[in-house]
Design brief:
By secondary structure, the chain is mostly helical. About 60% of the residues lie in helices and about 0% in strands. The chain is built from 15 helices and no strands.
């Protein structure tokens, strides 16, 4: 659901507007009302935190019942119900002062400057597990999380394919709670697949190629050619950043044994700001924000017209829940 995440996070706009965007560009996309009904985008931060806490509580209750059914004691882990947020930090990629300081926010960003509060975790099951024999502890954790994957199931990078059916009580509980999420339900799966496909194919939307072409020509004239789309420019910074981190020495088990080259990071940060400012200038020159917003509105409205019955059923189901 990556496309949906991008849509929901980008529909509200920023307060700092250096592009001269009209009020129309600040309006939410036509699909937002439908998707907010599922993802809670219309909720306040406090309401979102409460929703998250309720989902966690439900998961823990299911885990506790599952463990009890298998003959173990299990005390649900409680949380404060508070999510760590960015505080007063703002994401303003259309504000010139912001871009001059952070570029695309790849290397430096207002979020990385704010300390993240740490909360010590206390496992309520630690004393119970400690009272078990070694074999009983093994059985406890296998019941809780499932057996460890076999060597042939583990990739070279240490990852393996997750399967909730073999992930113990937690896998079953998380699957059940996720199943209560309309976006994961069988009834609406075709609709959400269609929405994902819509945004995956955004490069083919009418008017997009022309707009990107004008932007790319402007960038080329400014001495920053080689980027076919605005996203390509951003990605080029992230690709260089990945190369810097990939060059850090690691131990045999893949744990970094050194630090990234700070001089290389500083140099990339300077190039990032220079590129991002040129990008901002070209977006202003071709009226990128307003035109892109209008393209999106037209495409989304057509999608709504084609799928109105399914979308109305989605909202009705969300309201029943």
């Amino acid at each position: 659901m990556a496309a949906l995440t991008l849509l929901l996070s980008g529909c509200s706009g920023s307060d700092g507007d250096a592009t001269g965007a009209s009020d129309g560009a600040e309006q939410e996309s036509p699909l937002t009302d439908y998707l907010n009904a599922v993802y809670g985008g219309d909720l306040s931060p406090e309401e979102q935190e409460r929703q998250f806490a309720e989902q966690q509580e439900r998961t823990e209750e299911l885990v506790a019942q599952c463990m009890q059914d298998q003959g173990f004691e299990y005390t649900p882990t409680t949380t404060s119900g508070t999510l760590v947020s960015g505080g007063d930090a703002e994401w303003e990629p259309d504000d010139r002062d912001w871009v001059a300081q952070y570029g695309y926010g790849a290397i430096n960003s207002p979020f990385s400057e704010e300390p993240v509060p740490e909360e010590e975790f206390v496992d309520p099951n630690a004393d119970y597990v400690a009272s078990l024999s070694e074999s009983e502890q093994t059985a406890f954790y296998e019941a809780l999380h499932g057996p460890a994957p076999d060597e042939d199931e583990i990739a070279e990078d240490g990852s393996y394919e997750y399967d909730w059916t073999t992930a113990g009580c937690y896998g079953a509980a998380q699957h059940e709670v996720a199943d209560e999420d309309l976006s994961q339900s069988a009834e609406f799966k075709p609709l959400f697949e269609a929405i994902d496909e819509l945004y995956t194919d955004s490069a083919s939307w009418p008017g997009t190629a022309e707009l990107d072409g004008e932007w790319a020509a402007c960038m080329d004239a400014a001495g920053h050619g080689g980027h076919a789309t605005q996203m390509d420019a951003q990605n080029s910074v992230h690709e260089e950043l990945n190369e810097i981190y990939e060059s850090v020495a690691t131990s045999e088990d893949g744990v970094p044994t050194g630090e990234p080259d700070q001089a290389a990071l500083d140099a990339l940060a300077e190039r990032e700001v220079e590129l991002a400012l040129a990008d901002l200038d070209c977006r202003e020159e071709v009226d990128y924000r307003d035109r892109s917003a209008e393209i999106t509105r037209e495409v989304e409205q057509q999608f709504i017209d084609d799928h109105r019955a399914e979308l109305d059923a989605l909202v009705a189901a969300a309201e029943r829940d």
